[in-house]
Amino acid sequence: MNNEKMSKKNILLCACIILFLPLFSQDLEAKKMRFQGYSGGMMLHTGYLLGGSVDVPNYTEKTKIQGFTFGIGGALRFHFGKHLRIGSEGYNSTLRYGKNKSSMSLGWGGLLIDCQWEIAKFTLFCGGTIGGGSMKNTILTEPVSANSAGQKALYQKYSIMVIDPFIGMEYAISSKIHLIIKADCIVNLTQKQSDFPIGTRVYAGIVFFHATKRSAYSTDK
Length: 221
Hints:
This protein has 1 helix and 9 strands, in the order H-E-E-E-E-E-E-E-E-E. By secondary structure, the protein is mainly beta. The protein has one domain (2-24, 34-215): Porin (Beta Barrel). Strand 2 and strand 3 form a beta hairpin.
């Protein structure tokens, strides 16, 4: 138990360092931290997740959560200076697993902070999101069929707090439109649940920019 707590603290510490790294990497002079505009867009995501086994009362088999997840969501960022971006994001991710096609759904969102570095038409970034969400899990003990009115199932729902470190890259099609790809790994900060799956999600989408006149984004690269 102590090793588990220490491991969770280490993960949380590393995630916090990644999350707040952009704040410490800035030159905090007011002149260099002025507002540069904002950007936002939608992303699709997928990834392979692994979770624990769930015990269903009066059911001998254990249901293991694993498989590919798919989802959609978006983010809004406000740009300050050359590197700092602060905003919010939110996503929903679903996963079907097991021989009876049980279903898991995770919705989450929160405060986003990241740091960007521009290299020609590419923008590299890293940071994280801290916030909360809701986990829903419907475990089916029988295959779904037309005659399954009395089908046995277990439904679980609970709230969570999460921290979500990420890294990614954008490519500028123009000063107002970027393609984006990123990867993350959600860490559950609340009490450990056996059905909470862990894994890396990969996101891809389009970001639209609105820049101030003094911003570096106001002219095509």
